């Protein structure tokens, strides 16, 4: 049975069972192997800027790694056949209020797909040629 919810909003497991991802994120985020990506597997630059999205701590999202999604910065399944998979990410609580799980936070997501801290923008788009 398929859900009609967008892929980036699906939560198939209880939050408690989700693996928490903490800063800093792994730098090898585009491929699970050590081989170089072919041109067809390279991520498409969706935009040369970050995008701010308001999310609550503990909310699960699926960040698009391929750049082909029409629902940027989230996955819509357009990566099929690219060799790139979306990144499952759990919104962390604010550092100054670790127990606050109700107040939404604005997260700056990368859209150029070249960040070293996925899915968070690190300004890498400033170094790319347009």
TrEMBL record:
Domain Iron-binding zinc finger CDGSH type: 51-85, 96-130
Keyword vocabulary terms for this entry: 2Fe-2S, Iron, Iron-sulfur, Metal-binding
Listed cofactors: [2Fe-2S] cluster
GO terms assigned for molecular function: 2 iron, 2 sulfur cluster binding; metal ion binding
UniProt keyword Iron present: yes
GO cellular component terms given for this protein: cytoplasm
Disordered: region residues: 85-104
PANTHER family per UniProt: CDGSH IRON SULFUR DOMAIN PROTEIN HOMOLOG, CDGSH IRON-SULFUR DOMAIN-CONTAINING PROTEIN 3, MITOCHONDRIAL
Listed name of the protein: Iron-binding zinc finger CDGSH type domain-containing protein
High-level lineage: Eukaryota, Fungi, Fungi incertae sedis, Chytridiomycota, Chytridiomycota incertae sedis
């Amino acid at each position: 049975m398929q859900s009609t919810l967008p892929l980036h909003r699906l939560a198939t497991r209880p939050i408690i069972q989700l693996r928490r991802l903490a800063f800093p994120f792994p730098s090898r985020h585009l491929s699970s192997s050590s081989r170089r990506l072919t041109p067809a597997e390279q991520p498409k630059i969706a935009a040369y800027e970050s995008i701010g999205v308001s999310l609550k701590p503990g909310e699960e999202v699926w960040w698009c790694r391929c750049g082909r999604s029409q629902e940027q910065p989230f996955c819509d399944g357009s990566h099929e056949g690219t060799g790139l998979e979306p990144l499952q990410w759990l919104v962390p609580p604010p550092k100054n209020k670790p127990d606050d799980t109700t107040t939404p936070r604005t997260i700056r997501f990368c859209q150029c797909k070249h960040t070293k801290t996925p899915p968070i923008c690190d300004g890498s788009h400033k170094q790319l040629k347009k």
